[in-house]
Amino acid sequence: MEPELTLDNKDLTMKTVKHLVATTILSATVSATAWAGELVINSDQADPAPKEAWAEIVKRFEAENPDITVKYNLYDKEAYKTTIRNWLVTSPPDVVFWYAGNRMKTFVDRGLLEDVSDIWAENNMAQDFKSAAPAMTVNGKQYGVPYTYYQWGVYYRKDIFEKYGIAEPKTWDELKAAAATLKKNEVAPFAIGTKYLWTAAGWFDYINLRTNGLDFHIDLMDGKVPYTDERVKKTFANWAELVEPGYYLENHASYSWQEAQPFLYNGEAAMYLIGNFIAPNFPDELEGKMGFFQFPVIDLLFLWQKTHRWIRFTSQAKRRTKKTLVSSLHLLLSQRFSSLLTTFYCKSRRIAKRSLLMTSS
What we know:
Blueprint: H1 14-31, E1 38-43, H2 48-64, E2 69-74, H3 77-90, E3 95-99, H4 102-109, H5 117-122, H6 125-128, E4 137-138, E5 141-142, E6 145-157, H7 158-163, H8 172-184, E7 188-191, H9 198-212, H10 214-221, H11 230-243, H12 261-265, E8 269-275, E9 290-293, E10 308-315, H13 322-333, H14 335-345, H15 349-360
Helix pairs in contact: 1-13, 2-14, 9-10, 9-11
């Protein structure tokens, strides 16, 4: 049975929501009279499970709040990354999905995102989301609330590893040795699709983190260190140890990350560095044949650091008042909201078991 999404409990009562919305409408009428009970959300959650979940969330929210119309604009993920730069300026929504860290900071520096530090304070989020807070904070203020997070790592075909006597790599040398064995047996060690370059950026992030550490990586991303720095050259030298022997899928620039998946599933490739959003796509016939390991250690000084990536809800600064955001973000922070999303993400026992496995790993 699906969890009930009701708003009549201790942390978010219907009375409270209606009060907040009424106050917001009044404030919005003074400053931007076009609001009239419409909440605009721009989203990139286009994969099947989150798409279905959000359709249900919007439906239930509108049923319980008939004075509010939710305009939920859904974009293709890759198109979203480009168009957000335009509509944040020309036609900003109330709430957007976006990423933590420097990708958020770019918009904060341009004055396009709202400071929601008071929401963090009111909900004790600094304590509850202690590990996420730095990625959502710019100059001591928070500019988004956590929606979900996912780990990256290496997904691999356990049956192929067993066939060629390969153990899960723990170190860089072991990863290179595994790749050499696979290459010798005409199996592409690493599936990857670089039609959109963020998949290659994921490789750079991990190799740089393992080569130079988290603090250096943050400084590099902040522009405090040039890419001509000798330490960055060392990162690229390490990466070349995988590129030059031809360990990546051939013609990978022709594929998106989704289009590169079949090579892993049909056994033409053995590993894929990617986030766990790939897990629901595993074919039934690979049940029990997929494994996961953390990106191996390169320098013992820099062990496994910060391997989670956060997606957030981010408020837009120039369209609504702060109280408009409170009415929606309180809902999104509720336990029932999270439960509903989990229901759709884990619609079968197989996917639920797989999600649990990947999270525990």
